[in-house]
């Protein structure tokens, strides 16, 4: 009986030792994940990499540019309209945006910015419209034409 009890005690001790090893391994895994997170750069937005400034293994300072990421949802349309339209186009107004690609596409955008400063040389003012592009079907960076239905 003493021999059996000794085997049971040894087995319990072995089990306890293995449980401690497992706990230590879990703590080490957590530590390594934390260390990895310190070396991982995460973009604050969803988008596409336009350019990469550094390569894998290069030292990155806190103020270094690592890459340029473009966000394609929403799309922003920058347009210039004659200064005579100042006061007629307001934030929240809708405008029709005719895109070059896909050919014949016309989307409705919402005015989000009306520049309060005119460009004296061209007698225009800047506006920005926002287009939803959740599906990513509209390519960014293309020419377009904006029209408004203004009430007199």
From TrEMBL:
Pfam families: Beta-barrel_RND_2
Gene3D superfamilies: 2.40.30.170
Residues spanning the membrane: none
Cellular-component GO terms for this entry: efflux pump complex
Domain CusB-like beta-barrel: start-end pairs: 76-148
Molecular function GO labels: efflux transmembrane transporter activity
Name the record gives this protein: HlyD family efflux transporter periplasmic adaptor subunit
Record organism: Devosia aurantiaca
């Amino acid at each position: 009986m003493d021999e059996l009890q000794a085997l049971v005690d040894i087995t319990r001790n072995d089990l306890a030792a293995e449980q401690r090893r497992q706990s230590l391994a879990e703590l080490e895994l957590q530590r390594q994940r934390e260390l990895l997170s310190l070396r991982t750069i995460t973009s604050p937005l969803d988008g596409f990499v336009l350019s990469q400034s550094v390569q894998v293994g290069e030292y990155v300072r806190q103020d270094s540019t690592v890459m340029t990421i473009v966000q394609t949802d929403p799309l922003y349309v920058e347009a210039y309209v004659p200064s005579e339209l100042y006061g007629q186009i307001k934030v929240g107004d809708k405008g029709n945006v005719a895109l070059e690609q896909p050919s014949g596409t016309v989307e409705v955008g919402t005015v989000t910015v009306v520049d309060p400063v005119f460009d004296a040389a061209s007698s225009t003012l800047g506006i920005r419209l926002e287009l939803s592009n959740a599906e990513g079907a509209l390519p960014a960076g293309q020419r377009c034409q904006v029209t408004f239905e203004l009430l007199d």
